[in-house]
């Protein structure tokens, strides 16, 4: 059996959904599970709605919800007509969304966030499933929250593997054995109390990997708007080239350093079962894409470039001029771990330590008060981070010339820079 994952760009409107259904229809008669994200930009809108709910800005939330509902109803009507039952199903889901502040009166922002943001995948999968049934494909819609069980770490929930494995075997496997195409959601799960959780931004790839692992999939395919895994972001580097084949280890390294083509958690569940990951284009679905698996590193692999803007460089120094020893380092790392802040680069000196992170005003607002009693803290905003795997002197010179380099870290395979200008 195969597991497919389609992201938000692939289901952004009615023509896009028709294209997805066309791709899926080629595999009719085979065991297939399809993981689908929210429509493009919907998660961003739902994040704004969650913030408006939390800040008691009811009018702002209502306006954004109305716009989202109008968009989704219009797409559904274009695909299946104005009298299809899915339109009523969407109305029920949007009614539930409007009631979230009343249904969940307590909890942190992260809890509220997950109850709101999970709705995007429910909207999109109901529409796609209804359309596929409309054109005669054997489809079963499934609520991923009934099978993907997690802990209560809202916005970064961890999978409860034993319970999830049992539920997938009980609820999903029988459908696949009947060659029914299962349509479900990425990114979302639920706790033992049935509160919705999310697995981290862009977590649908990981959801697909969880299903692939449990179901012993033949392969997992991620359908993207690019021809495969490229050596750089084509929006920033127009001459980026496709890599035909990658070992699991290289894919892990790329995602760790911030390459966005695959979610960082995706590889482990696949590598553990030796399941290949195929990255293919939904725009040109006949092309072979990139295959990731148990392969040697290609001899001709090009330099892999990961460029991250909107970074913040934090410098911590001891208040009493003492060494930045294990106790101080542990306290800083504990602060990042408690607040679930990913560090992109770390470098320590005798009495100081520098850390580069993605800019996040909310997280910084929590981190600084936590560590300020123990350290002098200096922030340098608006820095950029460049990582080059399999670098050479020519590419390093091209990408760093006329830049103010603040930090350099170098290993035989990887070179990283924090820089400005």
Distance between the termini: 50 Å
Quaternary assembly: single chain
Residue stretches low in confidence (pLDDT < 50, at least 5 long) are none
The total beta strand count reads 18
Structural class: alpha/beta
Largest sheet: 8 strands, mixed
Amount of helix:
25-40%
* Discrete helix count: 14
- Report mean pLDDT, rounded to a whole number: 95
General form:
globular
Question: How would you concisely characterize the structure shown here?
Answer:
The chain has helices at residues 14-25, 42-54, 58-80, 85-103, 109-117, 119-134, 161-171, 173-177, 204-215, 248-256, 267-272, 326-338, 361-371, 393-400; strands at 2-6, 32-36, 139-141, 181-185, 188-190, 196-198, 219-224, 229-230, 242-243, 245-247, 277-281, 290-293, 304-318, 343-348, 352-358, 375-389, 404-410, 414-420.
Describe the protein.
The longest helix has 23 residues, at 58-80. The chain starts with a strand and ends with a strand. It has an eight-stranded mixed beta sheet with strand order 3-4-2-1-7-11-12-10, with helices on both faces. 40% of the residues lie in helices and 24% in strands. A hairpin with an 8-residue loop joins strand 11 (277-281) and strand 12. It is an alpha/beta fold.
Please describe the topology of this protein:
Elements: E1 2-6, H1 14-25, E2 32-36, H2 42-54, H3 58-80, H4 85-103, H5 109-117, H6 119-134, E3 139-141, H7 161-171, H8 173-177, E4 181-185, E5 188-190, E6 196-198, H9 204-215, E7 219-224, E8 229-230, E9 242-243, E10 245-247, H10 248-256, H11 267-272, E11 277-281, E12 290-293, E13 304-318, H12 326-338, E14 343-348, E15 352-358, H13 361-371, E16 375-389, H14 393-400, E17 404-410, E18 414-420
Parallel strand pairs: 1-2, 1-7, 2-4, 3-4, 7-11, 10-12
Antiparallel strand pairs: 5-6, 8-9, 11-12, 13-15, 13-16, 14-15, 16-18, 17-18
Helix pairs in contact: 2-3, 2-5, 3-4, 3-6, 4-6
């Amino acid at each position: 059996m195969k597991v497919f994952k389609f992201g938000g760009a692939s289901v952004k409107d009615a023509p896009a959904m028709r294209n997805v259904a066309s791709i899926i229809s080629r595999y009719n008669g085979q065991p297939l599970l399809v993981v689908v994200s929210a429509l493009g930009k919907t998660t961003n809108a739902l994040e704004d709605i969650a913030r408006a709910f939390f800040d008691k800005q009811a009018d702002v939330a209502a306006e954004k919800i109305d716009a989202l509902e109008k968009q989704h109803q219009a797409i559904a009507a274009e695909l299946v007509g104005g009298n299809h039952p899915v339109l009523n199903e969407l109305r029920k889901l949007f009614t539930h969304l409007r009631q979230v502040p009343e249904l969940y009166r307590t909890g942190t922002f992260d809890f509220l966030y997950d109850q709101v943001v999970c709705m995007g995948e429910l909207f999109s999968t109901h529409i796609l499933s209804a359309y596929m049934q409309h054109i005669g494909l054997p489809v079963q819609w499934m609520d991923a929250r009934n099978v993907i069980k997690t802990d209560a770490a809202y916005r970064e929930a961890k999978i409860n593997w034993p319970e999830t494995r049992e539920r997938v075997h009980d609820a999903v496997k029988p459908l696949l054995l009947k060659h029914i195409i299962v349509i479900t959601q990425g990114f979302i799960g639920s706790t033992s109390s049935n509160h919705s959780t999310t697995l981290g931004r862009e977590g649908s790839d990981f959801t697909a990997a969880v299903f692939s692992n449990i179901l012993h999939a033949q392969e997992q395919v991620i359908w993207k708007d690019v021809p495969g895994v490229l050596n750089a972001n084509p929006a920033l580097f127009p001459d980026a080239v496709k890599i035909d084949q990658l070992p699991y280890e290289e894919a892990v390294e790329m995602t760790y350093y911030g390459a966005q083509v695959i979610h960082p958690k995706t590889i482990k569940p696949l590598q553990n079962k030796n399941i290949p990951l195929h990255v293919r284009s939904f725009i040109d679905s006949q092309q072979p894409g990139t295959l990731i698996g148990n392969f040697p590193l290609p001899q001709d692999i090009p330099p892999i470039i990961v460029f991250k803007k909107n970074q913040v460089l934090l410098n911590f120094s001891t208040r009493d001029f003492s060494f930045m020893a294990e106790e101080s380092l542990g306290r800083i790392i504990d602060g990042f771990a408690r607040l679930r802040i990913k560090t992109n680069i770390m470098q320590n000196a005798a009495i100081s330590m520098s850390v580069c992170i993605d800019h996040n005003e909310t997280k910084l607002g929590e981190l600084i008060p936590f560590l300020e009693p123990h350290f002098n803290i200096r922030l340098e905003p608006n820095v950029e981070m460049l990582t080059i795997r399999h670098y050479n002197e020519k590419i390093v010179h091209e990408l760093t010339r006329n830049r103010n380099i603040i930090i350099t870290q170098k290993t035989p395979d990887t070179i990283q820079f924090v820089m400005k200008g």
